[in-house]
């Protein structure tokens, strides 16, 4: 990564910043996520760093899909850990909502289908994304989206010394089983996808009006997540979201099953008149 030059700041997250950067040999642009390393001399931190390097090398070689942001490598100089990845010029779906407001149903269908294809690919490889949300669905300039920030991001949190380390905002996308201490599984991503579809259609995930602690309580104890979709939203969309919010893990559908849901399959003929 010798010939890289760092460009403008693309955005900041809970524990790092993402910069545009350019390979001066080829002129190709990439995104570089940088995290300041906390207590780099501690044994724990160096263990996490080497696990992170290993993980990114595996992701770089073994995870390639049109709806997954590609990792290209990583480096650290003892102070900053940098991950080089595919540049998505449209920013995130969260950025889109911030700038233009909630998405139309048609746009939501298109993004949801693409995210499902990415999730199906990851899940078939036994990879759980763990952080599906609008901020991690990145856009090109032509209506295509890709999932970013999987796997490695939890380790980045461990090595980071960011004052924003508490992942504010992420709690709203977490499933009841995760908050109950039963860990992550593929079905957890499906719950978070449901939250992301609510975010696309309304601008916010369920329970967004509550503080973190109150939101956790509601997610764990309520039969139905707290959201209300606009009147114009179709029955298919409502049914898709409530399927994602099935509390029983066995009954909650998989990404492959959801790809056959009428919400995503009807897009072509209903909207394009074909
Ligand atoms: N590959 C990329 N291409 C273009 N922009 C990106 C890319 N990755 C991230 N960004 C921009 O940088 C912002 C910060 O990304 P980052 O992954 O650090 O945090 P986040 O996912 O928004 O939040 P959190 O860290 O809480 O999960 C994103 O919201 C997006 O606008």
TrEMBL record:
GO terms for molecular function: ATP binding; protein serine/threonine kinase activity. Gene3D superfamilies: Transferase(Phosphotransferase) domain 1. Keywords: ATP-binding, Kinase, Nucleotide-binding, Serine/threonine-protein kinase, Transferase. Residues 4-264 form the Protein kinase domain. It comes from Helobdella robusta (Californian leech). PANTHER family: MITOGEN-ACTIVATED PROTEIN KINASE KINASE KINASE 19-RELATED, SERINE/THREONINE PROTEIN KINASE. Pfam families: Pkinase (PF00069). This is Protein kinase domain-containing protein. GO terms for biological process: intracellular signal transduction. ATP binds at residue 33. GO terms for cellular component: cytoplasm.
């Amino acid at each position: 990564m010798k010939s890289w030059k760092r460009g403008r700041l693309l955005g900041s997250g809970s524990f790092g910043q993402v910069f545009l950067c350019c390979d001066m040999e080829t002129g190709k642009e990439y995104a570089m996520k940088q995290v300041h390393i906390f207590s780099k001399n501690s044994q724990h931190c160096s263990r996490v760093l080497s696990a992170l390097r290993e993980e990114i090398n595996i992701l770089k070689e073994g995870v390639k899909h049109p709806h997954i942001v590609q990792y290209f490598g990583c480096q650290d100089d003892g102070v900053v850990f940098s991950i080089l990845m595919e540049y998505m010029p449209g920013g995130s779906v969260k950025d889109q909502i911030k700038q233009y407001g909630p998405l139309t149903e048609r746009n939501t269908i298109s993004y949801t289908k693409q995210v499902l294809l990415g999730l199906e690919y990851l899940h078939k490889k036994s990879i759980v994304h763990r952080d599906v949300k609008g901020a991690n669905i990145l856009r090109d300039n032509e209506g295509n989206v890709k999932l970013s920030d999987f796997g490695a991001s939890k380790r980045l949190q461990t090595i980071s010394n960011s004052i924003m380390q508490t992942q504010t905002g992420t709690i709203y996308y977490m499933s009841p089983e995760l908050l109950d201490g039963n860990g992550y599984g593929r079905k957890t991503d499906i719950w978070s996808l449901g939250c992301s579809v609510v975010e696309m259609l309304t601008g916010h995930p369920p329970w967004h009006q509550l503080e973190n602690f109150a939101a956790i309580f509601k997610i764990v104890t309520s039969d139905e997540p707290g959201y209300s979709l606009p009147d114009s939203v179709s029955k298919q969309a409502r049914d898709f979201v409530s399927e994602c919010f099935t509390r029983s893990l066995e009954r909650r559908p998989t990404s492959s099953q959801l790809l056959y849901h009428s919400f995503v399959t009807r897009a072509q003929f209903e909207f394009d008149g074909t």
